[in-house]
């Protein structure tokens, strides 16, 4: 069924624990991503969903799989844990996709591993559906993220705040190597482990760096650039990751771990949804700073590889962290320039963006809708956009400056509006819709989830059948908090 070609399992024993999934009582296939399966060269017999459910629940281990739980460490909310690891995830193996890219196939919630500590190794249905919806939405929005191959109900209950139906999520990733994977070896003083991992990463993700004078420094820099770009893209769609611990930051540059993530409704840069993020460490506006902090942790791990002279190694690492900041600023500006429909670059562009964001914050305007409706204004229809601002003074002033700026670009209005609509989504996985889909599924109705998933497929189009998904929550629908609920 899978054409496995496993490389991580070839690394030394201390990189992982070999462990088989623990079979579940009554697996039922909830969703299977046929398009992704085709991309991955998976031969699935769709006429036999029961068989697919058994494979994706871990009851039947397909031939060629080498199930392992990966070892990693990580800073969680700033505190270092030397041993985290896959406590409820099992890597079945790797396949090489149609484009020649190596991808991991991982079962999340497939039973305990040597890294489970006090956890049960299981996942609850709610978080599985959330990850399915949000990771697929990210893909449709064009933002690097791990993907959803399948979701399976286990037929078993898991104990969380209350008993919940269990599920397994099948995750596909460019790899599951995280900043925390490097930390695992570095914290033990295992320099050889760090080097083996770095060589593995360069081979797998960044082979073009092999010829650089210092491939390890080049790798650090490339990872930093990818992360800076990724976070800028998150900011552009109002995404709040919610748990940017170093074990939740990939080396590939993909978004990973959709636990307490959420999207901005009304624009508030200090917004935090996660119930466990009391201090607001991972607030919307803190994400770039945290990204840089996480890159500093990666850099620390790599110091011995950067230069034999420690002082020079630290200097090189600091230069990369500086580049992270500069690159983030540049990417952020380019994301928001595009959102405003600006093709060229002018000195005052950042202020122009800030003027809009300032007006949105004061008005508590819906983030997604404000940018989407700005495309109407590009066609001379200001009403819907302005209606988001109870006091229109700042918004009106912004429109005037924006028009003056646009007048120097000379784009026809219809083309401009179309370009803006191609970067400012109409449909995002709004928190209240995600919650609604989960609540319905817990009530036995998976149809709401399927419908939402479909609505998220073409986020830049305004399809009449999905019109309601564009609407912000009514006051009483607003989601105040999200829960890890692992
Ligand atoms: P996360 O919050 O998903 O990033 O997970 C942090 C750590 O907790 C990782 O080492 C996970 O494998 C582990 N973990 C989370 N949930 C469970 C669970 N239900 N059983 C065992 N380990 C878990
Ligand atoms: Mg994690």
How many separate helices? 15
Structural class: alpha+beta
- Note the main sheet: 6 strands, antiparallel
Order of helices and strands: EEHHEEEEEEHEEHHHEEHHHHHHHHH
The percent range for helix content is: 40-55%
Question: How many DSSP E strands?
Answer: 12
Shape: globular
Question: Overview of this structure, please?
Answer:
Helix 10 runs antiparallel to helix 13. This protein folds into three domains: 8-176, no CATH class; 180-338; 340-486, no CATH class. The mean pLDDT is 97. The protein is built from 15 helices and twelve strands. The chain is of the alpha+beta class. The chain starts with 15 loop residues before the first strand and ends in a 31-residue tail after the last helix. Bound molecules: adenosine monophosphate and magnesium ion.
Tell me the layout of helices and strands.
Layout: E1 16-18, E2 28-32, H1 34-39, H2 49-57, E3 68-70, E4 74-76, E5 79-81, E6 89-96, E7 102-108, E8 123-124, H3 125-140, E9 147-159, E10 163-173, H4 179-186, H5 191-205, H6 215-237, E11 239-240, E12 262-263, H7 287-306, H8 310-339, H9 349-363, H10 367-378, H11 383-386, H12 393-407, H13 413-421, H14 431-442, H15 447-455
Antiparallel strand pairs: 1-3, 2-9, 4-5, 6-7, 7-10, 8-10, 9-10, 11-12
Helix pairs in contact: 3-14, 4-5, 4-7, 5-7, 6-7, 6-8, 7-8, 9-12, 10-13, 14-15
The structure holds adenosine monophosphate (AMP) and magnesium ion.
Magnesium ion binds at residues 247-248, 257.
């Amino acid at each position: 069924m899978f054409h496995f070609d496993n490389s991580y399992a070839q690394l030394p024993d201390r990189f992982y624990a070999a462990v088989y999934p623990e079979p579940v009582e009554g697996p039922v296939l909830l969703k299977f991503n046929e398009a992704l399966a085709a991309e991955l060269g998976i031969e699935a017999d769709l006429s036999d969903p029961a068989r697919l459910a058994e494979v994706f629940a871990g009851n039947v281990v397909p031939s060629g799989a080498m199930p392992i739980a990966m070892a990693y460490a990580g800073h969680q909310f700033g505190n270092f844990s030397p041993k985290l690891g896959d406590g409820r995830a099992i890597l079945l193996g790797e396949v090489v996709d149609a484009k020649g890219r190596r991808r991991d196939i991982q079962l999340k919630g497939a039973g305990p591993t040597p890294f489970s500590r006090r956890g049960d190794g299981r996942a609850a249905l709610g978080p599985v559906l959330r990850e399915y919806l949000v990771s697929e939405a990210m893909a449709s929005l064009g933002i690097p993220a791990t993907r959803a191959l399948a979701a399976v109900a286990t037929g078993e209950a898991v104990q969380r705040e209350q008993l919940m139906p269990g599920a397994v999520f099948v995750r596909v990733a460019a790899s599951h190597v995280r900043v925390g994977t490097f930390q695992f070896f570095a914290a033990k003083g295992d320099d050889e482990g760090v080097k083996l991992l770095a060589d593995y990463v360069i081979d797998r993700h960044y082979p073009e760096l092999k010829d650089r004078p210092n491939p390890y420094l080049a790798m650090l820099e490339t990872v930093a650039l990818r992360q800076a770009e990724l976070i800028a893209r998150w900011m552009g769609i109002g995404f709040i990751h919610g748990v940017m611990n170093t074990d939740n930051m990939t080396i590939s540059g993909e978004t990973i771990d959709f636990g307490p993530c959420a999207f901005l409704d009304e624009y508030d840069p200090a917004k935090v949804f996660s119930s466990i993020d009391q201090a607001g460490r991972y607030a919307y506006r803190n994400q770039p700073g945290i990204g840089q902090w996480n890159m500093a942790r990666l850099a620390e791990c790599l110091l011995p590889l950067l230069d034999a002279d420690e002082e020079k190694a630290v200097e090189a690492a600091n230069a990369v962290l500086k580049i992270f900041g500069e690159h983030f600023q540049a990417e952020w500006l380019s994301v928001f320039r595009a959102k405003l429909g600006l093709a060229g670059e002018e000195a005052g562009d950042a202020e122009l963006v800030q003027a809009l964001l300032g007006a949105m914050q004061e008005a508590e305007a819906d983030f997604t809708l404000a940018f989407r409706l700005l495309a109407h204004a590009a066609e001379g229809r200001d009403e819907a956009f302005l209606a988001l601002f109870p006091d229109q003074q700042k918004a009106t002033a912004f429109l005037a400056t924006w028009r003056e700026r646009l007048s120097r670009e000379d784009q026809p209005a219809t083309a401009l509006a179309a370009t803006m609509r191609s970067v400012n989504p109409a449909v995002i996985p709004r928190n209240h819709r995600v919650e609604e889909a989960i609540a319905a599924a817990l009530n036995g109705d998976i149809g709401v989830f399927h419908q939402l998933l479909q609505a998220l497929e073409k986020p830049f189009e305004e399809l009449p059948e999905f019109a309601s998904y564009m609407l912000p929550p009514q006051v009483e629908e607003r989601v105040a908090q999200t829960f890890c609920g692992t």
